[in-house]
């Protein structure tokens, strides 16, 4: 009688284990299918961030000396391109398991994970580095602005930045009050700001300090830093979210692979490498 009870208990335990295992595989398939579609959406979001950063580097690249400034943008675009076939493979594996597709999916997830970790680290490094680089670049442009020669190279750069960002000076318009008297060889009481500080609706504005309402009040440094930091944070959090999703996809794929091992890959045997 005890033996019969033991057999019944064992059968029940095996049944429960099989049922749980079946539910686990079903959940893994559902999650992998869902993540496949999500990967397409995250690819679009990541590509958007990458292209946005590349365009910003083209617009403001003259403020930096380094040629690799746009590297995070190209890494984001590369990751977005790889995410597309990864999503297709995830959906395909969830519909019909294939050990070769499962292996390819796992390799792609690993490559993506490396790319996104690199991109997240670069985004943090660039956020810190650009803050100090921008401060020195803006200070240089303000100090070397030539009020007596409107066509000077540094003038056009600073004028473009001020008009594009609708700002005035590095911190604010008072930066020009400190510099113009000395570098433009003007008496302190006659100091004024460049015409690029003037708001568009005041076409008669010539930079005289008697009409402060005609100038942009905010400094260019803060505006530009905020823009660049926002794009970096956007790409950073995109990478974090996508990395978590990829880990979930890797776990789901691993659960399915456990029930379909790579028995026939004999080329991996150590004897073939001797």
The value of Rg in angstroms is 30 Å
Shape: elongated
The overall pLDDT average reads 76
DSSP strand tally: 0
Write the H/E string, N to C: HHHHHH
Poorly predicted runs of 5 or more residues: 9-20, 262-268
Helix/strand class: mainly alpha
Distance between the termini: 58 Å
Write the layout of secondary structure elements.
Blueprint: H1 2-60, H2 71-95, H3 99-143, H4 153-165, H5 174-183, H6 220-258
Helix pairs in contact: 1-2, 1-6, 2-3, 3-6
Can you offer a commentary on this structure?
It is a single chain. This protein is an all-alpha fold. Helices cover 70% and strands 0% of the residues. The chain has 6 helices and no strands. Helix 1 (2-60) packs antiparallel against helix 2 (71-95), helix 1 runs antiparallel to helix 6 (220-258) and helix 3 runs antiparallel to helix 6. The chain is elongated.
Structure described in brief:
α1 packs antiparallel against α6, α2 (71-95) packs antiparallel against α3 (99-143) and α3 runs antiparallel to α6 (220-258). The chain is elongated and about 80 Å long. The protein contains six helices and no strands.
């Amino acid at each position: 009688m005890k033996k019969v009870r033991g057999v019944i208990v064992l059968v029940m335990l095996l049944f429960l284990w099989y049922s749980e295992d079946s539910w686990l595989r079903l959940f893994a398939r559902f999650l992998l299918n869902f993540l496949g579609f999500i990967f397409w959406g995250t690819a679009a979001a990541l590509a958007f961030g990458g292209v946005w950063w590349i365009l910003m580097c083209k617009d403001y690249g003259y403020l930096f000396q380094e040629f690799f400034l746009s590297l995070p943008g190209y890494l984001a675009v590369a990751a977005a391109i790889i995410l597309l076939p990864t999503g297709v493979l995830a959906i395909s594996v969830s519909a019909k398991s294939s050990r070769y597709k499962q292996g390819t999916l796992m390799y792609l997830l690993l490559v993506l994970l490396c790319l996104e970790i690199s991109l997240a680290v670069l985004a943090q490094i660039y956020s810190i580095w650009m803050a100090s680089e921008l401060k020195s670049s803006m200070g240089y442009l303000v100090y070397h602005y030539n009020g007596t020669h409107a066509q000077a190279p540094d003038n056009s750069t600073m004028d473009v930045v001020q008009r594009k960002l609708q700002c005035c000076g590095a911190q604010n318009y008072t930066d020009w009050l400190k510099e113009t008297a000395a570098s433009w060889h003007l008496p302190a009481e006659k100091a004024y700001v460049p015409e690029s500080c003037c708001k568009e609706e005041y076409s008669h504005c010539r930079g005289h300090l008697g009409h402060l309402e005609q100038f942009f009040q905010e400094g260019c440094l803060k505006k530009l830093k905020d823009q660049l930091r926002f794009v970096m944070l956007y790409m950073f959090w995109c990478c974090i979210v996508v990395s978590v999703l990829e880990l979930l996809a890797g776990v789901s794929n691993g659960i399915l692979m456990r029930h379909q091992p790579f028995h026939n890959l004999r080329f991996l045997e150590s004897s073939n490498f001797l």
